[in-house]
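Subgroup meeting minutes
Present: P.N., E.W., G.H.
Scribe: E.W.

1. P.N. recapped why we're keeping a running log of single-chain structure predictions: easier to compare across weeks, and new members can see raw inputs and outputs side by side.
2. G.H. added today's entry (345 aa).
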Amino acid sequence: MKNIKVLLLICVLVLSSCGENKQEDSSILEEVNTWIIVWEKKKEETNTWIIEEEKVTENNIVENQDIKSEPETEKVELNDEGIRKEEVTNPKKIYKKEEKWTRSEGYRINNEAIYYRGEEIDWIDIKTFEILEYEYAKDKSNVYFRGNILKLANPETFEVLHYWLSKDKNNVYTQYSILEWSDSDTFDALDFWYFKDKNNVYKVRWFHEKISILPADAKTFKLLNEYCSKDKNFIYWDWYKIEWLDLENFEILSDNLLKDKNNVYWKWKKIEWANSETFKVLSDSYLKDKNTIYYISSQWRVYTLGNADVETFEVLDNWKGKDKNNCYELWKIVDKSECSEEISG
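Output recorded in log:
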């Protein structure tokens, strides 16, 4: 505060040195003092922010450089009953002490209005408004997604199933649209990604922002793990059908690896030349059979380590391995010094 007074007085002196009328100078000084008094009173009433004075040593070195000033953003704090606390960190906007606030899923509610991501929604009924999951909400008349009305949705029977899926007594919805060929009465979740009704099996393809219908038999369809599933006819990896896999004699080696008595499959693709009978998983990246060491890259490609000695090969970590002759990084031969352990042989 002392610094502000000094600054204002300097401005007065500068103005005075340029003027010729002493009565005007006196008037300016009186106005400056009025500003200071008003500012001090405002600060005392709101009690919202403080400017700490700089502590100056004899050598004019500033000891306290952590000067608090007006924050750029407003901080909202609620007590256990959801009542906004009296403390407000932004003096430009003072809220009533008893004003109630709720913030969830992009919506903000007070006693007078409802906002979605900062924009007020005028047509919502505040008394019956309810925030649901995944940016959905509803009141007595409408269902909302991201602040927009889902025109066909029935608020009394509306149910959120997933970020991309919801339903009511009449339809299944993919956010704003009706999911074609779906049956609302029998539509249900199998897990976070898979859904089915009496007619179809559905898979949420998150990165593609779409819902796919699997070419599966809904009545006999069941999940085997996060990616693998089956029906009476086929095994599926994600939404792909593995047509050559023996349904009666198969084994899941990991989320992405399967085999039957004849072949090994990486996801839905057959690994050529792999020997199913002796095939083993060594780590998340390295595999082997009686003839070959395989490496699976982060781009999901399968490489063979053609020169690797199968009998002596061992995994050092997910990126390195060694045998009696060489050191390997990923699927390539590197200098032996790259291996963390000494190679014998």
